[in-house]
């Protein structure tokens, strides 16, 4: 608290004092620096509500010290924040000037990124242009119809709220009172009768529900008994089928075992015993057992019976059924009926390979993916890259993705400045906040934009950083505030961003793990080849050890400050509406984050108080 008080005293607050009213009637106004310090400390605690700040000024020691127990009303706080939007936006620059005066701010590497923050608006309030025009026409028509109806009802020269003549006339006041009492008595009698009828109907409904519940319980018991009888019958039939199959297999195995040992065999061999038959019988037995277990489980599941343990697999996906099927196909191949690895031509559904078919997600589709040599997750990454490229192409064509010709454009009734934006967690109604940080992790710029993608925000962010550094250099006299390398992820990848004049930059075209894989499998050294495009030159640098090591610094330089804004400052949702109001709230949060960064780097209150 004392650190932030000293920091505010050290910063230039002329813009806040310029709008303070001096003289006049009424009580003395609050000191702008005190109100600013309240907002700075509240933002450091993740608090943005004017009403909660007012309550904390009564209960929290730090807030009471800041306001000197002269608690401002929440309306004073709200008007101060609204009146000084532009000054609050400049608070970020003031925090950077303070850091520069203390010998901080290193510009060797500047990282930038965008983060979506939810607006104070609902996604359900989005309307198309046709809907908005219809709403406007309906409203105008409704207002006109209401005026005409009231003119006809009350007269053109009357408001409609005048006292009736019966009220202004006091000659029949007693009669009016008695009539009013009669009305109340009649209404009470009617209400009591209705309540009695409601109670009787409720009793009848309860009795009917009880009878229906008892009947339903009896029907459920009957259904359960029928189900158990059918299940026992099915299990008996399955047991008989399995027993017959097992006897056939046993006879075949005994005959083949004796034949293999060379023992003399009298009489003809058992009818139908051959290798193909034996293999098929084993497969059918395994499948029948698996089907019985699976059908029993499905029956229990339909009846609501809870069974412990792992649920059984479908018959054709069981390991024993698959092994029996492979043996059966081998016997067919040995007989010359089918070649190995080929399905039985013209076979039935049972003769087809277990798990085969158009709906199988674990069979041929998996093998084809493995044969193609495609790495797991490659399809997802390719889809993400395709989406990024599509967004970049739409941006270079001159319009944001989702706002192409022929598509509907929507506006939000709650906050028209907000936009519907896609995030990794779904769609949000919010703003795309572009931030950049220095090498020693100070937030240099924080801009609230309406662009749904990042690709068109690289150059505005670069210009904003250069303008901010020029202002800091002018006010502090420092000459070492020159940008070394700017780091940006694949969301900023475009030829315009790569070739625009300005400082050195490393803009990726893929995710970090893919960049690392490229540098490992195809490392590069030295300068890029002659005639290479801008994209190829950057990719060559990212495959060098130095280039990849530099780019890897981007994540912790920019992702951590974005997390501080959302989690530390509580800025997951803006508390005000409108682009200017959102920008002032974002700049305040970024400036407070920089002040807390000074505290984390060991700057003391005594150092701030030194002139």
Beta fraction: 5-15%
Instruction: Give the termini separation.
Output: 20 Å
Using only C-alpha atoms, the radius of gyration works out to 40 Å
Tell me the total number of β-strands: 8
Mean pLDDT: 82
| Secondary structure category | alpha/beta
Q: Helical proportion?
A: 55-70%
List low-confidence stretches.
340-353, 355-406
Instruction: Estimate the global geometry from the Cα principal axes.
Output: flat
Kindly report the oligomeric state of this protein: single chain
Largest sheet: 6 strands, mixed
DSSP summary: helix tally: 23
Describe this structure in words.
- With 611 residues, the protein is α/β, with parallel strands linked by helices.
- The protein is built from 23 helices and eight strands.
- The chain has helices spanning 2-10, 14-18, 32-44, 50-59, 61-66, 74-83, 85-89, 91-101, 129-154, 165-168, 173-261, 275-303, 319-335, 364-371, 378-396, 458-476, 495-499, 512-521, 534-542, 545-552, 554-568, 579-600, 605-609; strands at 109-118, 126-128, 410-412, 419-423, 426-437, 443-449, 485-488, 504-507.
- The strands form two sheets. Strands 1, 4, 5, 6, 7 and 8 form a six-stranded mixed beta sheet that branches. It has a two-stranded antiparallel ribbon with strand order 2-3.
- Strand 4 and strand 5 (426-437) form a beta hairpin.
- Helix 11 (173-261) packs antiparallel against helix 12 (275-303).
- It is flat.
- The relative contact order is 0.13.
């Amino acid at each position: 608290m004392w650190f932030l008080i000293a920091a505010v005293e050290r910063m230039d607050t002329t813009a806040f004092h310029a709008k303070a009213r001096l003289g006049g009637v009424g009580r003395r106004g609050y000191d702008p620096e005190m109100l600013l310090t309240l907002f700075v400390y509240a933002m450091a605690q993740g608090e943005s509500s004017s009403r909660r700040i007012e309550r904390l000024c009564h209960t929290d020691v730090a807030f009471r010290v800041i306001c000197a127990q002269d608690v401002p009303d929440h309306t004073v706080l709200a008007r101060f924040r609204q009146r000084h939007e532009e000054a609050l936006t400049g608070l970020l620059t003031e925090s950077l000037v303070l850091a520069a005066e203390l010998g901080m701010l290193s510009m060797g590497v500047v990282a930038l990124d965008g983060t979506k923050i939810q607006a104070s608006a609902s996604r359900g309030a989005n309307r198309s242009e046709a809907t908005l025009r219809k709403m406007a026409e309906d409203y105008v028509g409704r207002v006109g119809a209401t005026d005409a109806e009231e003119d006809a009802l009350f007269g053109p020269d009357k408001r409609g709220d005048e006292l009736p003549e019966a009220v202004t006339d006091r000659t029949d006041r007693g009669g009016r009172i008695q009539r009013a009492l009669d009305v109340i008595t009649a209404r009470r009698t009617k209400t009591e009768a209705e309540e009695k009828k409601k109670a009787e109907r409720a009793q009848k409904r309860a009795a009917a529900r009880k009878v229906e519940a008892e009947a339903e319980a009896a029907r459920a018991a009957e259904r359960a008994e029928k189900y158990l009888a059918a299940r026992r019958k099915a299990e008996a039939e399955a047991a008989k089928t399995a027993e017959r199959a097992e006897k056939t297999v046993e006879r075949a195995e005994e005959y083949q075992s004796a034949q293999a040992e060379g023992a003399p065999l009298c009489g003809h061999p058992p009818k139908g015993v051959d290798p193909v038959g034996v293999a098929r019988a084993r497969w059918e037995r395994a499948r029948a057992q698996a089907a019985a277990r699976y059908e029993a489980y499905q029956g229990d599941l339909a009846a609501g019976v809870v069974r412990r343990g792992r649920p059984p697999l479908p018959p054709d996906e069981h390991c024993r059924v698959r092994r029996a099927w492979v043996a059966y196909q081998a016997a067919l191949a040995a007989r010359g009926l089918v070649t190995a690895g080929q399905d039985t031509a013209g076979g039935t559904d049972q003769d087809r390979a277990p798990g085969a078919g158009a709906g199988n997600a674990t069979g041929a589709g998996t093998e084809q993916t493995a044969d193609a040599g495609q790495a797991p997750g490659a399809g997802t990454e390719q889809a993400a890259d395709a989406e990024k490229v599509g967004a970049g192409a739409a941006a270079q064509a001159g319009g944001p993705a989702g706002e192409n010709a022929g598509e509907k454009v929507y506006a939000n009734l709650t906050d028209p400045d907000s936009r519907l934006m896609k995030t990794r967690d779904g769609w949000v109604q919010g703003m795309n906040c572009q931030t950049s940080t220095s090498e020693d992790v100070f937030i240099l710029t924080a801009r609230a934009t309406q662009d749904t993608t990042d690709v068109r925000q690289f150059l505005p962010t670069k210009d904003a950083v250069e303008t901010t550094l020029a202002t800091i250099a002018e006010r502090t006299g420092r000459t070492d505030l020159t940008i070394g390398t700017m780091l940006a992820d694949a969301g900023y990848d475009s030829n315009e961003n790569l070739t625009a004049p300005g400082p050195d930059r490393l803009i990726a075209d893929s995710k970090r793990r893919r960049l690392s894989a490229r540098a490992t499998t195809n490392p590069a050294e030295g300068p890029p080849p002659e005639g290479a495009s801008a994209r190829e030159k950057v990719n060559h640098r990212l495959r060098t050890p130095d280039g990849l090591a530099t780019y890897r610094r981007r994540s912790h330089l920019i992702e951590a400050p974005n997390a501080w804004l959302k989690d530390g400052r509580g800025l997951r949702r803006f508390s005000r509406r409108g682009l200017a109001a959102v920008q002032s709230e974002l700049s305040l949060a970024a400036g407070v984050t920089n002040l807390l960064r000074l505290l984390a780097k060991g700057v003391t209150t005594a150092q701030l108080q030194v002139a």
